[in-house]
Write a structure and sequence with these properties.
The protein is an alpha/beta fold and about 240 residues long. It has helices at about 15-25, 40-55, 65-80, 105-130, 155-175, 190-195, 210-220; strands at about 5-10, 30-35, 55-60, 85-90, 135-140, 180-185, 230-235. The chain has a 7-stranded parallel β-sheet, with helices on both faces. It starts with 6 loop residues before the first strand and ends in a 6-residue tail after the last strand. The structure holds NADP nicotinamide-adenine-dinucleotide phosphate. This is 3-oxoacyl-[acyl-carrier protein] reductase.
């Protein structure tokens, strides 16, 4: 499917997978709305992508865990873009500790950002997609949404739930020509993985944010008759 002149909102676009996805979409001629909490990251990316690819890029800051901030930021981006064809729910956080050692505020915060954040942004944009009878929603989940591991109770719970929300919504809106997809990457070499102390191993063999972005792009380019239900992407970095 041709993506030139489509429009996309990407959450968590300032770093890692979101930033790489913004670049991959800009290279295809997609007009962008970038959202994260750090304005300077977004402004730098806005300048870079608009000058290199000649696409329109708008930015808005919000904490996706805050529904009021999400409403203001998403409506500003949507009105600047005119319509929203693609939503990439990518903003996420990760912290890993045994349940007994993680305080309830941190546990809850992971659910708020990774699950409620995706829900708030989607809820704001769904009416427009239903009205235009088209859209693509891509949720960045994780292999942690498919199997649990020690120290991952909050992160795994958030990603299992995100996959459940994805599948339920996919069934709800596919007859309206809206595709809802999840990607389930294993560890990717990004600030999140490094800050959380995840094993990166041999950097040359480690999956990069740009690799995940290519899968996002491939899914979006599939003909609209095809729904990519969920797709795994693994690092080929045996430890
Ligand atoms: N890296 C991995 O190994 C891996 C593997 C599987 C899945 N994932 C998933 O991929 C997604 C992206 O992860 P990443 O590794 O690219 O992370 P990252 O490098 O830490 O980047 C995360 C981005 O999200 C933004 N963000 C974080 N919390 C936010 C919030 N509350 N509200 C709005 N924006 C927020 C950050 O910017 P600000 O801090 O400025 O807001 C940043 O731009 C996440 O959903 C993560 O769970 C990552």
């Amino acid at each position: 499917m041709e993506l030139t002149n489509k429009t996309a909102i990407i959450t968590g676009a300032g770093k890692g997978i979101g930033k790489a996805t913004a670049e991959a979409l800009a290279a295809e001629g997609v007009q962008l709305g970038l959202l994260a909490r750090t304005a300077s990251d977004l402004e730098q990316l806005q300048q870079d992508l608009s000058s290199r690819y000649g696409v329109k890029v708008f930015t808005a800051t919000a904490d996706v865990a805050n529904s009021t901030e999400v409403r203001a930021a998403v409506s500003s981006l949507a009105s600047s873009l005119g319509r929203v064809d693609i939503l990439i729910n990518n903003a996420g956080t990760g912290a890993f500790a045994k349940m007994v050692d993680m305080d309830p505020e941190q546990w809850e915060q992971i659910i708020r950002v990774n699950l409620m954040g995706a829900y708030y942004v989607t809820h704001e944009l769904l009416p427009g997609m239903l009205e235009q009878q088209s859209g693509d929603i891509v949720n960045i989940a994780s292999t942690a949404g498919e199997r649990g591991f020690a120290t991952g109770s909050a992160y795994c719970a958030s990603k299992f739930a995100l996959l459940g929300m994805t599948e339920a919504l996919m069934q709800e809106v596919r007859k309206s020509n809206i595709r809802v997809t999840a990607l389930t990457p294993s560890t990717v070499n990004t600030p999140l993985a490094v800050n959380a102390g995840l094993p990166i191993g041999d950097e040359d063999r480690m999956m990069q944010a740009e690799d995940v972005a290519q899968l996002v792009l491939a899914g979006l380019k599939l003909p609209s008759r095809v729904v990519l239900k969920s797709a795994g992407i693994w690092t080929n970095n045996p430890q």
